[in-house]
Amino acid sequence: MLTRRGFAAVAGCAICSITGFGATEAFAQGAAATTANGVTRKVLSRTDGPAAGYETIIMDVTLDPGAVVGRHTHPGIESTYVMEGEIELPIEGKPTQTIKAGEAFQVPPATPHAGGKPSSGKTRLMINYIVEKGKPLASPV
Description:
Elements: H1 4-11, H2 14-19, E1 34-36, E2 39-48, E3 54-63, E4 68-73, E5 76-84, E6 86-89, E7 97-100, E8 104-107, E9 113-116, E10 123-132, E11 139-140
Antiparallel strand pairs: 1-2, 2-3, 3-10, 4-9, 4-11, 5-8, 5-10, 6-7
């Protein structure tokens, strides 16, 4: 069974996909946090694997109140744990869900999705991506 802490580590990369940005050297492990459009991202860990041609990225993401991430896809799976606040999550083919603190979600590879901050407080996410190495972390749809 996966502990809350273990899941948080695995889940850290989902919001990157929600935000629709590409992976660059600026998102290298140990780099300073970056903020754009009310979304702050900090890469906590980036490593090769679990299989050849893939990498695992763990990211701490904070959304300011009202911040919205446009529709995008990822070249791998996104697993996200909501540490604080809540987020609205429209995933193609499913009704929009509101995911609250203590809950988690996954987005399959190449599945269009978005995200937003409905409440008055900030939202903090731990996102884990397992994606094809060398491809943009997220591509707008």
